[in-house]
Amino acid sequence: MEIRTPAEVWNERYTEPFASYGTEPNDYLHEVAERIPAGPVLCLAEGEGRNAVYLAARGHSVTAVDLSEVGLANARKLAARHGVTVDTVVADLTTYDFGDSHWSGIISIWAHMPSAARPALHAACARALRPGGVFVLEAYTPRHLHRPGVGGPPVVDALPTPAELRRDLAGLQLEHCREVDREITEGKYHHGPSTTVQVLAFKPPAGAAGQDSRDDRRY
């Protein structure tokens, strides 16, 4: 049996003759986009670019990172159709250099990672934000596993809980970290009732400690 790399798996998906997750931005990102300060924004595991293009149209300088060169090629085409520019970087998030105090916003929409890799990834995000910068995340949670066939990884290790994310993001000020039940319609592969965690967090000014809202309510 042939074992394919994650990049090969995603390249195959993004060769399909349609946008796998649609061309409209994620609903939660659309809800909180106005909270992102002016300046450069980094989109993680950005795939075919729908969120990056949306943010570029709002005036941000956007960099999209993904394993899939095919997905990012599609992202550039989508950006051109919308009359905006998105910088694209083919990279593994576990080795990507996020920089220090550079980004006004970091966007993690469905950037599911193994549990062992998440703490270091989220610590890198916290370091890379400017003071006042915003971290936005939506991911499926373990409670989503009872909803097969509507999207998301089928293994619990890739699905973070609110408690895990609060630990990972202890250096940021959490406005909310909440588990929600909601309907998702994003192309062919994210479609139906879903359980997700949504995070909105801010980088405190230099010398200020992060504060945790402890908001893990379920809706």
Walkthrough of the structure:
With 219 residues, the protein is α/β, with parallel strands linked by helices. It has a single domain (6-202), classed as Vaccinia Virus protein VP39 (Rossmann fold). The protein contains six helices and seven strands, in the order ααβαβαββαβαββ. The chain has helices spanning 6-13, 27-32, 50-57, 69-81, 118-128, 162-168, and strands at 40-44, 61-66, 86-90, 103-109, 129-140, 173-186, 190-202. The protein has a seven-stranded mixed β-sheet with strand order 3-2-1-4-5-7-6. The longest helix is centred in the middle third of the chain and has 13 residues, at 69-81. The radius of gyration is 16 Å and the shape is globular.
Number of strands: 7
Counting H and I runs of at least 4 residues, what is the number of helices?
6
Oligomer state equals: single chain
CATH superfamily membership, which one? Vaccinia Virus protein VP39
| N-to-C CA distance | 43 Å
The secondary structure category is alpha/beta
Q: What integer is the average pLDDT?
A: 91
What's the number of domains? 1
Pfam family, one: Methyltransf_25
InterPro entries: Methyltransf_25, SAM-dependent_MTases_sf
Protein name: Class I SAM-dependent methyltransferase
GO biological process, one term: methylation
